[in-house]
Design brief:
The complex is a heterodimer of chains A (262) and B (141). By secondary structure, chain A is mainly alpha-helical. Helix content of chain A is 44%, strand content 6%. In chain A, strand 5 and strand 6 form a beta hairpin. In chain A, helix 3 crosses helix 7, helix 6 crosses helix 7 and helix 8 crosses helix 11. Chain B is mainly alpha-helical. Classes of the chains: A mainly alpha (262), B mainly alpha (141). The interface between A and B is medium-sized, with 32 and 30 residues.
Chain lengths: 262, 141
């Protein structure tokens, strides 16, 4: 009798755990599709032609900045890293990643800021400044065509879990989470726009509505504002963790930066 | 034996409660004493800052070019749902489906990280909800 009783409670507990746990399970879209597939043909054509892609202007500026000696140390990126087309190949595909010295999760922008401040003894470029966007786009561009390949194990695990929780958290007056649009409804029309799967592999990207290159966090802030939520400041740990979850979700896609989006 | 009965009773109770919860899908009592105004409701539905319903739903309004298809079309909704059923869905549709993408339009509690100007306020006032219901009731097939 006792045994059966235990069985019944066990089954009930399992049922409850399953019901509560469902929304928190990490989900990868199937099939995985880049945001590129949701753009108008002209926008895709613009991305595919480096001569027409305005994002390449930021890449060119980044290339020049890479070799420029800065700060009290009069050191350029190249002083330590050499040729970016050799040493930076595949690097952006692994970001965000945990910085072993501080234990913090860094995205590419934060990593470049760290180099500028700590290793080059130079002023730290502000978020969304031309300097930071250009360097980020230049480094990201070295991984173009390479598969997104972040680590979510070991030291990265707690950040991944936080990012996943943020992804499923309903926020704002409209009370929506990322999952409601980008898992459950991608491909459908939101007024005149087709909902994408919400991947970050385009970024830094040139957006036609910005008429400029911007970071993934700028795009996340725009989503937050859309659901009438208070956006986090640039560089907030919550956003970097969310970027890690997004990169995990994007498995099977390649880095497209600087992509072109509507 | 007794413990088994208790478990069975608990499960039966839970099932009953669940079915009662699922069966409720209407809120027949109006939110205000002022009857809804269909013309004002139409303006709320089409407004990009108030209802913004076209973001997700199609409506039989041919002058509006871009209409969403995330939710069901609202053409003929007045023949399918009663005023009480509409009110129930507009006020807080998570009561019908906890995972729904449809925002709760008249519930101020429970929202997280709401941006300053919207904090503590529902998306629509009680009267706006009544006006929207009045308009949707005119969409008959």
């Amino acid at each position: 009798m006792l045994y059966r009783q235990r069985l019944a409670w066990g089954a009930l507990a399992l049922l409850l755990a399953a019901t509560v746990g469902v929304a928190q399970e990490p989900i990868r879209p199937d099939p995985v599709r880049s945001g590129r597939d949701f753009q108008a043909p002209e926008t895709r054509a613009m991305q595919d032609d480096d001569g027409a892609n305005p994002g390449m202007l930021w890449v060119a500026r980044g290339r020049a900045l890479w070799d420029e000696a800065v700060g009290a140390a009069r050191r350029s990126c190249a002083s330590c890293h050499g040729r970016a087309d050799e040493t930076m190949r595949g690097v952006a595909a692994q970001y965000p990643r945990v910085d072993p010295s501080s234990g913090r999760l860094l995205n590419l922008e934060l990593r470049i800021q760290q180099c500028r401040g700590e290793r080059q003894d130079a002023p730290v470029p502000r978020f969304e400044s031309d300097e930071l966007l250009a360097l980020t786009a230049y480094v990201a561009h070295q991984s173009r065509g390479m598969p997104v390949a972040v680590s979510v194990d070991g030291a990265a695990r707690p950040f991944f879990d936080a990012g996943r929780a943020a992804y499923f958290q309903r926020i704002g007056q409209l009370n929506l989470a990322c999952t409601h649009c980008h898992d459950a409804n991608w491909g459908r029309m939101l007024r005149g726009d087709r909902l994408s799967q919400g991947h970050g592999n385009a970024y830094p990207a040139y957006r036609l509505d910005w008429q400029a290159v911007g970071s993934l966090q700028r795009r996340l802030r725009f989503c937050n504002t859309g659901v009438r939520a208070e956006p986090h400041p640039f560089g907030a740990a919550e956003y970097v963790a969310l970027e890690l979850y997004l990169a995990w979700r994007a498995k099977g896609l390649t880095v497209e930066s600087p992509a072109v989006r509507r | 034996m007794r413990s088994r009965l208790v478990v069975a009773g608990f499960l039966a109770g839970a099932a009953l409660a669940a079915s009662a919860w699922a069966a409720e899908d209407a809120q027949n009592e109006p939110l205000t004493g002022v009857p809804g105004d269909a013309a004002r409701g139409r303006a709320v539905v089409l407004s990009r800052t108030l209802g913004n319903c076209l973001l997700c739903h199609a409506l039989p309004v041919p002058t509006e070019r871009f209409q969403g298809d995330i939710g069901p079309s609202l053409a003929g909704v007045g023949s399918r749902l009663s005023a009480g059923q509409m009110r129930y869905r507009i006020v807080d549709s998570t009561r019908l489906n906890p995972d729904t993408i449809m925002p709760a339009y008249h519930r101020a509690e429970g929202a997280v990280r709401v941006a300053g100007p919207f904090r503590g306020r529902p998306v629509l006032t009680a009267q706006e909800v009544e006006d929207v219901v009045a308009y949707l009731l005119t969409l008959r097939e």
